Automatic annotation (TrEMBL):
Signal peptide start and end residues: 1-20
Superkingdom of origin organism: Eukaryota
Biased composition regions of type Polar residues, renumbered to the chain: 38-49
Species this protein is from: Eremomyces bilateralis CBS 781.70
Chain spans, region Disordered: 24-56, 370-389
Protein name: Uncharacterized protein
Keywords: Signal
């Protein structure tokens, strides 16, 4: 077994994505289906954490799955079901006139660590996001393009090593679509599809709902990257042995996008992903493998909040690796009200990714649910939001080795007394998330 030196991983803000479960044990009324609101654990009482059966009930085969989880588990075509959740006019549309170029070469930004690297921004979509008065075909919140799959998207290169990546949200002219003008990159999930692309944490599962949404399995597609409105830049750099994510000519890419619109008119936006890469497969480069930790592991990553106040924590199902690797680092992702993501192995913490918050000046008006404004409570009613998660890399890691047979898990902590949670305009709690993406270099 060849020894692999540690490679530094730069996270300049939080890794984005989501996580999911529901505490319902009886069928939901039709009028409430696809409503992205909390379901309180029937056994939660006043405890500081939900019981494990409640969390595990959201997994495929569990008793407390959300309606979308049930549909995806029962039907073969996950992409059709995900599309069904959105209004007919929502989703991918033609480029507007005078739209900025889809492929934009940029000045290389990490040549210091990766000589001869290139940087390119790709624009995906565009996507029409419904206004806040419009809901999906089965109700729920307005102003959402909800878990929408986009398949076989452009790649930055056909034969290369990706050494950096981050995401953003833009309007057609290239201007920023952000909180200040009522738009949110709520989350996106980025897949690489191809032979041998086994998802690290879900590859052994019978069903992985994120993979089903894009019409693939966790045995031929892995979750490579993700981002929320924190718009993380992750870059691999700074070691005696450099590393990058190998992208082959035969590989394909796909994404699931989830955008929020706090405006009274539809908005057309582009998901942008900026890649840093080196051409070919330069001598000396080691492989990078992503490991996706989720508090519901292989669900749709939509988790109802188990509390309306106070603090709580939720622990993920355990994962046991079947390979050895050197840990590069990890970053966490939470929703408003979240305080930290803890990654642990065999009961020992290897690091804590802490949340930071920013007060935003927003340009969207207060919303009135009595006028049919059913959108999320992210407008001027709430201006302080989670804006970053501390990276855990290098000497921040208490342990740096991943080994076969270990038990890995994450714990997401929330404190609504310390930070205000996300709420809908009727005051109902929004879903919460708990994710960590850890990058490793497998031993060879």
């Amino acid at each position: 077994m060849k020894s692999i030196s540690l490679v530094s991983l730069a996270f300049w803000s939080a890794l984005g994505s989501c996580a999911a479960y529901t505490g319902r044990t009886e069928p939901e009324p039709v009028s409430h289906r696809f409503n992205r609101r909390q379901a309180v654990s029937p056994s939660s009482g006043n405890d500081t954490a939900p019981d494990n059966d409640y969390v595990m009930g959201a997994l495929p085969g569990g008793q407390g799955k959300s309606t979308i989880d049930k549909l995806l588990a029962q039907h073969a075509d996950g992409a059709d079901i995900a599309t069904l959740l959105n209004p007919p006019h929502a989703g991918k549309v033609p480029d507007p006139p005078n739209a900025a170029p889809r492929r934009q070469p940029l000045t290389p930004r990490i040549e210091f660590w990766h000589p001869n690297s290139k940087t390119v921004k790709l624009r995906y979509g565009p996507y029409n996001v419904p206004n806040m008065t419009e809901t999906g075909n089965f109700g729920g919140h307005g102003g959402m393009l909800y878990n929408y799959p986009d398949l076989n998207i452009d790649k930055p290169c056909d034969d290369c090593r990706i050494v950096g990546v981050n995401a953003d949200l833009e309007y057609a002219d290239g201007s920023s679509a952000n909180v200040t003008n009522g738009m949110w990159l709520h989350h996106y999930v980025h897949f690489v599809v191809g032979e041998g692309r086994t998802d690290a944490t879900c590859g052994g599962e019978e069903v992985s709902l994120p993979h089903k949404i894009i019409g693939e399995t966790p045995r031929n597609a892995e979750r490579f990257f993700s981002s929320g409105n924190e718009k993380t830049l992750a870059a691999f750099y700074g070691a005696s042995r450099i590393a990058g994510y190998r992208l082959r000519e035969e590989d394909q890419m796909a994404v699931i996008v989830d955008f929020m619109n706090e405006n009274m008119e539809d908005k057309v936006v582009y998901l942008t992903v900026t890649y840093d890469y080196v051409e070919g497969d330069p001598e000396g480069y080691a492989d990078v493998r992503p490991i996706w930790f989720d508090i519901v592991k292989c669900g749709t990553s939509e988790l109802p909040s188990p509390r309306d106040s106070d603090s709580f924590e939720i622990t993920s199902p355990p994962w046991t690796p079947d390979f050895d690797a050197e840990i590069i680092g990890f970053g966490g992702h939470l929703h408003d009200g979240g305080t930290s993501v803890i990654v642990s192995v065999d009961g020992r913490s290897i690091g804590v990714s802490n949340a930071s918050y920013t007060e935003y000046t927003v340009a969207v008006p207060d919303h009135d649910p009595n006028r049919g404004e059913t959108g999320h409570g992210h407008g001027s009613n709430q201006t302080t939001h989670l804006s970053g998660m501390s990276p855990i890399i290098g000497t921040d890691l208490i342990e740096r080795e991943l080994a076969k047979g270990q038990k890995w898990e994450i714990k997401a902590t929330y404190d609504y007394g310390l930070y205000e949670p996300e709420r809908g305009m009727d005051g109902a709690l929004e879903n919460i998330m708990g994710i960590a993406i850890m990058f490793v270099i497998p031993d060879t």
